[in-house]
Amino acid sequence: MHIVSITRTRNEGDILEVFVRHHCAFVDRMIIVDHRSQDNSREILQKLRGEGLPLDIRHDDGIAHRHGRVMTETARELMAAPDPPDLLMLLDADEFLVRNNGGSPRSVLERSTGILGIPCRNYIPLPSDRKEELNILKRMTHRRPAEDPQWYKICVDGMTLARHPDACIVEGNHKMTSKDGADLPMEKSKELVIAHFPVRTVDQILCKAYGGWFSHLSDPAPVHGGAFQWKALLDTVRQGKRLDAEALTVIALEYATKRQWDRLPSTFTGDLKHLRRTETPDQAPVQDPIPSLIDLRYRHYPADPRTVLLGTAEGLAREHARLLNELRTSGGDRTGHRKTNAR
């Protein structure tokens, strides 16, 4: 069986090396699309490929987030190739596929058919974590006791992709939809899990908020209520709340949860009720380490959050100017309004 993964990443050089080495143990080819990284992610990826690891490195320098469309377009490209994959895994760089009872996920993947939904477990940073440990799997060993809601990430077999050539991968890799927008059937895995590390350091989460949310806003056709976790992060920054080790733990505990969703204004969430929170008692983090023997070779040079913010703002301004210029040259005025003949 030929297994291929697709990943889109931005400013995640702190986790990229362990992500690649972990998955190369059971994946035949990894396609990684770097979206406007301002840390040394691209350099790390090039060094890993130089070792002979099966990396296909691509770049997306567009300002808009376009996650679902990039994943969909890449999947369709793979299926149109002479040697399409037998199984396609859709992963973010902060996600690690593991087997519940230990061992390699490969044998489970080889038995997978259709669309397999793999449940996510979100790991959280604690003030007691060993900051000197650079391997995230060794440093962050506690997860949330429960997921509310339970998110799933998907892998899809080649036959399903061939039967649904017009299907789309939904933003976040949570599901696939048919041409008319209906959800395609998904079987929930009982053997595999995604260990998710979305919140790791203060600077990392600020880079995610500054780069991610504004790039999401620049999408001309965003999902209603989409990327709500990034908006919540930016709202936290706007409120002037201090981000220290304790605050980082709280952010991680609430990241992409019903509790976080419920605090957002209805002008953003609209009439979407499926994430409305039900009261559940807070519980202590659960220690559940992911075994890892990976030793990192390459140093990460993180992006400064202010640099990411300014770079994103500059990119948005340039894109705005480009679009206005297109309108002007096609008959619009400097404000973007189409000229009309006076009577």
Structural features, described:
- By secondary structure, this protein is an alpha/beta fold.
- It has one domain (3-273, 286-329): Alpha-Beta Complex (Spore Coat Polysaccharide Biosynthesis Protein SpsA, Chain A).
- The chain is 36% helix and 17% strand.
- It has 12 helices and 13 strands.
- It has helices spanning 13-24, 41-50, 67-80, 106-110, 136-139, 158-163, 202-217, 228-238, 245-254, 258-262, 266-269, 305-329, and strands spanning 3-9, 29-35, 55-60, 87-90, 95-99, 115-124, 142-143, 152-157, 168-169, 176-177, 187-188, 192-196, 286-287.
- Strands 1, 2, 3, 4, 5, 6, 7, 8, 11, 12 and 13 form an 11-stranded mixed β-sheet that branches. A two-stranded antiparallel sheet has the order 9-10.
- Strand 2 (29-35), helix 2 (41-50) and strand 3 (55-60) form a beta-alpha-beta unit.
- The longest helix is centred in the C-terminal third of the chain and has 25 residues, at 305-329.
- It is globular and about 55 Å long.
- Residues 273-280 and 336-343 have low confidence and may be disordered.
